[in-house]
Design brief:
Blueprint: E1 7-11, H1 16-27, E2 31-36, H2 39-50, E3 57-61, H3 67-81, E4 86-89, H4 104-132, E5 136-141, H5 154-174, E6 179-186, H6 192-205, H7 209-217, H8 229-240, E7 250-254
Parallel strand pairs: 1-2, 1-4, 2-3, 4-5, 5-6, 6-7
The structure holds nicotinamide-adenine-dinucleotide.
Nicotinamide-adenine-dinucleotide (NAD) binds at residues 11-12, 14-18, 36-38, 62-65, 90-93, 113, 117, 141, 143, 186, 188-189, 191-194.
Length: 261
């Protein structure tokens, strides 16, 4: 029970990596609010987790790009649980296109979901963490694409690099209030976000779906394996349970050795 008594908010928690983190946080004893733009799925996910959790799980509808929804969602979490110790800013989308063909609205959708969403949720949670005197943890879902670029993913790569800058700033500003901020940088994880892009990349690169998996996604993983949602959730628990500021402002790559630094 490494997170017993903590309160965590996980954005994009209705599916994929966010759900796995919410599940692991709950197993480790945390009260978890699952926020997602798909409010029904967030509630369904919370109901599922409540069956295995000892603590209190809730689902809330929250579009992280909407200031009013983020503010009211965080207020609801504080009212319900009386505090907030961990924000996992995880909500994300992908769009596959070359820069020359990318529409402005697709650029804005991807960068806004990742960057505006990270900013708005961070701001709302920090205000509470600073006031409470209890400090806290901000965990950002970056990517290997916080460190390197790949073709066809410009807004995603730009936003994921930007998250590292936000994290480092929050680590510096938050230190005096006992707030840590770190980024988890997963390699490819076989979630809905990745399943969707396999045929899209195949078409644009003129190769088969199998070749996208083997030659694009897993080519440099040391064991040729996808990273799993469980492996990312384990990293999230590790970072969320830290008690000092020794580990802050870092971006930790969890990618089966795809990228090393
Ligand atoms: P996913 O599609 O399974 O889950 C993303 C969730 O975010 C969904 O439940 C979706 O409804 C929600 N969401 C989307 N827009 C939102 C918004 N505006 N407000 C609130 N919720 C919103 O994808 P995933 O793979 O689990 O991705 C989760 C995070 O992990 C993303 O930030 C993604 O960039 C990152 N990531 C994924 C991979 C991977 O290979 N799957 C690798 C590196 C980083």
């Amino acid at each position: 029970m490494r997170l017993k008594g903590k309160v965590a908010l996980v954005t994009g928690g209705a599916s994929g990596i966010g759900y796995a983190i919410a599940e692991r946080f709950a197993i480790e004893g945390a009260n978890v609010a699952i926020a997602d733009v798909d409010g029904e799925s967030a509630e369904a996910a919370a109901e599922r987790l409540q069956k295995i959790a000892l603590a209190n799980i809730s689902g809330i509808a929250m579009d992280v790009t909407k200031e009013d929804q983020v503010e009211s969602g965080v207020r609801d979490v504080l009212q319900r649980y009386g505090g907030l110790d961990v924000l996992c800013s995880n909500a994300g989308v992908q769009h596959i296109a070359g820069v020359h063909e990318l529409t402005y609205s697709d650029w804005k959708k991807v960068t806004s979901t990742h960057l505006d969403g990270a900013f708005l949720t961070t701001r709302a949670c920090l205000r509470h963490m600073y006031r409470s005197g209890r400090g806290g943890t901000i965990l950002y879902m970056g990517s290997v694409h916080s460190k390197i670029a790949s073709v066809l993913k410009a807004p995603y790569v730009a936003a994921k690099h930007g998250i590292v800058g936000l994290c480092r700033t929050v680590a510096k500003e938050g230190a005096q209030y006992g707030v840590r901020a770190n980024v988890i940088c997963p390699g490819f994880v076989r979630t809905a976000l990745v399943e969707k892009q396999i045929p899209e990349q195949a078409e644009l690169l003129g190769i088969t779906a199998e070749e996208v998996v083997q030659k694009v996604m897993l080519k440099d993983a040391v064991d040729g394996q996808f990273t799993t949602t469980d492996e990312i959730a384990e990293a999230a628990v590790f970072l969320a349970q830290q008690r000092t500021l020794a580990l802050t402002g870092q971006s930790i790559i969890v990618s089966h050795g795809w990228v090393m630094e």
